[in-house]
Design goal:
mainly beta; 31-stranded mixed beta sheet; six-stranded mixed beta sheet; 61% strand; disordered N terminus
């Protein structure tokens, strides 16, 4: 048989097979109601009843349809779901043996009064489901084999960002409220416990839910701007599951072993949900939601900051270096239990218990160059630090369903936190110093909330909150910075107490046109006291002198009435909001008492224009006035450390703020495109400014209030796109900020200062079909300060990660971080190299891996910073190179 005949017969054979196989795959027929009326609708084609992912779909126009299936269902069969607005859905199951006999269908749908949900289903390499305000991501579609925890997976999901330091998750630029498990809020704001420690293999789907209302009685009434993530677990993951991880290795420059031990348990059944973790490590990892090693605030700290007592002496926090956190030379023990229990049908409780103990060691060298009044000088401090935080905490929530329309919530939280920091400081001052800073906080917060659903469209909510914080801090410095010949020690003692009582009554409603509104009134009572004493001591001769003291009582009360309306007109959503407040302030201090009464009107407006399903324009504006903080109201000096004394000229004048924002955002999941850009502008009138008297041995700062303006303009751009033809995901982020302010140095005139910051980053991640892929992020930072003098700095970072995956069982990666702190000084560069290889056999519940961290054994990292008064160099020591072998067992 020659080649020509062979090709001809092959074509004939393939054609016959196509006809035979395709003949049974024709679907045609009619869709009618019970009266025989033709109906317009959809026919959704799935492989089984247990999936929400579509294989194909048919649009039914005027009741008739005819469609040839594009996919083969000879192995699984198929399910036809016939839907139409106002009718009950009809399901038809087709077995594989029946596929060849498919001819005509006559679907008859019955009427049903249902609420129609807008939904779009897209199937592809990254399937997802959009249903009203919820996007459901299929976990398997977004895994690339490198993930261990839920947090690792979240970084792969479109529209989601994860802060590596704080663990805060953002969705479409907004911080999420929490991460729930099967709809239950197990972690509250401390959700990073779950995202960092729950294994990704337990999770089937992740839901991103906008306009979220945790209170079930307010759903459909409340206009919420809250966003949460919800974890849907795999069907067979119930009762008790968990994992244990044991890692051990060596530090090359230390006799101490490197250790990383972790045990977590997840328990779920009909009456309870729980998650518990206990861990220990000395390799710089943080399993807790609390942050003691850098200046990043957790989401809970941001939410509760108005209830805490005044902290004047800042805690020591080492400079953050690389995502592997090499500057966190720690020894951390952390334990946590979270549980939700159904006590009765109407009563359930949630319990969150925490324990943390850590020891963070650091050697930090700070050198500063000052230029003031045509005088230039330099200072340095070389400090050896050991910080020991310890925290006990318990949270309890009770929910009582009084009736189907009434709900009572009670929350109580107690925290006991102690931090002890020992420092040995060698400096350019006359003496070397030993310093001990002790801080202790005892915090209690209680919150009672009653909700009554009056009707389908109206509800009332009453809230009462009481919070009390007793915060003490004491710093001891020896020898004395005042007169080391006579005194061998300085003691600074501060005590701050804050009592807050807040009440709010809210009426919520929804109109026939689906507009939302709310009206509230209430009061906020704040009573603060602050006492401080600075004493010079001669411990040998039992002699002491009281150098400085403060005794303040600050009362801030306000009564308010506020309203909000959410009005939808076509593609526009108008959300005006306003409040009328009566503010009363009274300060009793060492000098002259101050008091003020003010009526304040605070309007705000948000306008959203929905261009299409994926694109919106948002315009916002607002005016508000803020009362002062007690941190700015003490008048006599407080000793901060071996150099700094801080004081204020008290003033309780309100600060007036204007804010404006304009943004565009597009989130097109189908084309895997994200784009957002916009600007924010904030203008504040009335601010505390700082007069700094700087010498080679001391810095004395005095804060004072002036009715001057400060301005902050921020421009930003974010773009993300999957380039399918290159199998590469591209992300770029740009921020440009201008900050105009005023300052005084060494009693100079009030000087106009301007700070400019430009940040650009480019991220690439490939998904090639062959074993090696990579991800790379390059960040460029430009800083320019102009005030008393001009400073500029340009820096660059590049993070390259090579990923090797030869099979389902073997995975490896090599990460290289390259830093140039100052581009003008190319000799000062840093390279950090990490590597990991892991083996996970098929159908086994264990995995083994080996890692090498800081393989180039960089000892120190140097960062340069500029501001209006100085140019600073900060050098911090790093974890030495270590190797560790981890064994993980899941059960």
């Amino acid at each position: 048989m020659n080649e020509c005949k062979f090709r001809f017969l092959l074509c004939i054979t393939l054609t016959i097979l196509w006809v035979i196989l395709g003949r049974g795959q024709l679907i045609q027929g009619k869709v009618t109601d019970s009266n025989g009326k033709l109906i317009t609708g959809k026919i959704l084609i799935k492989k089984n009843l247990n999936t929400q992912i579509l294989s194909e779909y048919i649009l039914v126009g005027k009741g008739d349809f005819s469609y040839t299936l594009k996919n083969s269902y000879t192995d699984s069969g198929l399910v036809l779901e016939v839907t139409s607005v106002g009718y009950k859905s009809h399901f038809e199951l087709i077995a594989p043996s029946e596929l060849e006999n498919l001819t005509d269908f006559n679907f008859i749908l019955s009427k049903e009064k249902i609420e129609i949900l807008d939904e779009v289903v897209v199937e592809g390499k990254r399937p997802y489901l959009i249903k009203k305000d919820t996007i459901t991501f299929d976990v398997e579609a977004y895994k690339d084999g490198t993930e261990n925890s839920v947090e690792d997976l979240l970084k792969n999901l479109p529209g989601i960002e994860v802060d590596n330091n704080s663990g805060i998750v953002k969705y479409r630029g907004r911080s999420i409220e929490t991460v729930t498990i099967e709809g239950d809020n197990l972690f509250d704001y401390n959700y990073s416990i779950g995202t960092k420690n729950i294994g990704v293999d337990l999770v089937k789907e992740i839901e991103a839910i906008e306009n979220y209302s945790e209170n079930k009685l307010l759903k459909g009434i409340e206009h919420s701007d809250k966003v949460i993530l919800n974890l849907r677990l795999k069907e067979n993951k119930s009762d008790i599951t968990g994992s244990t991880d044991f890692g051990a290795g060596v530090f090359t420059d230390s006799k101490n072993p490197s250790v990383d031990v972790n045990l977590n348990l997840l328990g779920i059944n009909k009456t309870y949900k729980s998650f518990a973790i206990t861990s220990y490590n000395n390799i710089g990892e943080n399993s807790s939601p609390f942050n003691y090693y850098d200046n990043t605030y957790t989401l809970e700290q941001l939410k509760d900051q108005d209830y805490f007592g005044a902290s004047i002496i800042p805690e020591y926090k080492p400079l953050q270096v690389t995502e592997s956190n090499l500057s966190n030379i720690n020894s951390q023990v952390f334990g946590n239990f979270n549980g939700i229990f159904d006590i009765t049908d109407k009563l359930n409780t949630k319990i969150n218990l925490y324990y943390l103990s850590d020891k963070i060691d650091s050697n930090q060298f700070i050198a500063s160059s000052f230029i003031a009044n045509d005088e230039e000088f330099r200072t340095f401090d070389n400090s050896f630090n050991q910080k020991k935080p310890k925290q006990y905490r318990g949270d309890i929530e009770l929910k009582f369903d009084i009736s189907k329309s009434s709900l009572l919530n009670y929350n109580v939280s107690f925290r006991d936190e102690t931090v002890i920091t020992n420092r040995t400081i060698f400096s350019n001052q006359d003496n070397d110093f030993n310093s001990i800073l002790k801080s202790k906080s005892q915090f209690l917060k209680q919150d009672v909330q009653y909700t009554k659903r009056i009707s389908e469209k109206n509800a009332v909510q009453l809230s009462l909150l009481n919070a009390f914080d007793d915060f003490n801090e004491e710093v001891t410095i020896s020898p004395s910075i005042y007169n080391s010949n006579q005194f061998n020690q300085d003691n600074q003692n501060n005590n701050a107490k804050k009592l807050t009582t807040f009440f709010k009554s809210t009426f919520l409603g929804k109109t026939k046109s689906a507009d939302n509104y709310s009206f509230s009134f209430g009061f906020n009572l704040n009573n603060e006291t602050f006492r401080s004493n600075l004493i010079n001591l001669n411990t040998e001769q039992q002699e002491e002198i009281n150098v400085s003291s403060n005794n303040l009582k600050f009362v801030k009360n306000d009564i308010f009435a506020e309203g909000r309306y959410n009005w939808q007109v076509g593609k526009f959503t108008f959300s005006p909001k306003s409040s009328l407040r009566y503010l009363c302030q009274k300060l009793e201090n060492n000098i002259t008492p101050l008091d003020s009464d003010n009526f304040v009107f605070q309007p705000a407006l948000s306008i959203i224009f929905k261009i299409d399903r994926t694109s919106i324009i948002n315009l916002s504006s607002g005016l508000n006035q803020n009362m002062q903080l007690i941190q700015n109201l003490f008048s006599n000096p407080i000793l901060i450390d071996n150099r700094i004394l801080k004081s204020n000229i008290p003033d309780i004048t309100l600060q007036k703020n204007q804010s404006y924002g304009l943004s565009f955002s597009k989130n097109d999941l189908y084309n895997q495109l994200e784009l957002s850009f916009g600007s924010d502008y904030i203008k504040s009138k009335g601010n505390y400014f700082t007069n700094s008297e700087i010498s080679e041995t001391s810095i004395r700062t005095t804060n004072f209030f002036l009715s001057e303006n400060t301005e902050n303009l921020n421009l930003y751009l974010k773009f993300s796109k999957l380039l399918s033809f290159l199998k590469t995901n591209v992300k770029t982020t740009s921020n440009y900020s201008i900050f105009n302010f005023k300052n005084i140095v060494n009693n100079s005139n009030l000087t106009d200062s301007k700070s400019t910051i430009l940040s650009n980053s480019l991220f690439l991640k490939t998904a090639f079909a062959f074993p090696i892929n990579f991800e790379n992020k390059t960040t460029f930072l430009y800083q320019r300060n102009r005030g008393q003098s001009l400073f500029e700095n340009k820096s660059m970072r590049n993070n390259l990660k090579l990923i090797y995956k030869s099979s389902k069982y073997l995975f490896g990666s090599v990460t290289c971080n390259y830093f140039i702190p100052n581009i003008m000084d190319s000799t000062n560069t840093y390279s950090f190299l990490d590597a990991t290889i892991s083996f996970s056999p098929e159908n086994k519940d264990w995995e083994v891996s080996m890692s090498g961290i800081n393989l180039l054994n960089e000892d120190f990292f140097v960062n340069r910073d500029i501001n209006d008064v100085s140019a600073n160099m900060v050098q911090v020591n790093l974890l030495s190179r270590y190797y560790i072998i981890n064994f993980t067992h899941s059960f």
